[in-house]
């Protein structure tokens, strides 16, 4: 049951729910125990904003692998970038904790990299890459 090769290949929705509830319970209990530790709280906060800042990286990597941004809307990416830019400027102007500004800047850089991919791959198309289906995506839900 704990083979990492099949970790995200849930056979039943209840298995997924059970995993999420267990994770939430364990991390909630650990947080409760360490709530008085400022180092723990700061680290947890940093991990939260860092995780949000890295949300675009899988898309960036997939675009790079496929040498294509087919299906991505330039308007959508511009909205991501503008929202993340305004958020980061807000953090900087309001002197939010340092990790918010750093992770906001990281998020803006990832957005700009995706924008560059959209521009490059649409203006300088690469050789078409066949898109293979993921084995799990062929299963009926």
From TrEMBL:
Name of encoding gene: Pqlc1
Record organism: Anthoscopus minutus
GO cellular component: cytosol; endosome; membrane; trans-Golgi network
Classification via Gene3D superfamilies: 1.20.1280.290
Protein name (database record): Solute carrier family 66 member 2
UniProt keywords, alphabetically: Membrane, Repeat, Transmembrane, Transmembrane helix
Superkingdom of this protein's organism: Eukaryota
Pfam families in UniProt: PQ-loop (PF04193)
InterPro entries per the UniProt record, alphabetical: PQ-loop_rpt, SLC66/Scramblase_ANY1
Entry's Gene Ontology BP terms: phospholipid translocation; retrograde transport, endosome to Golgi
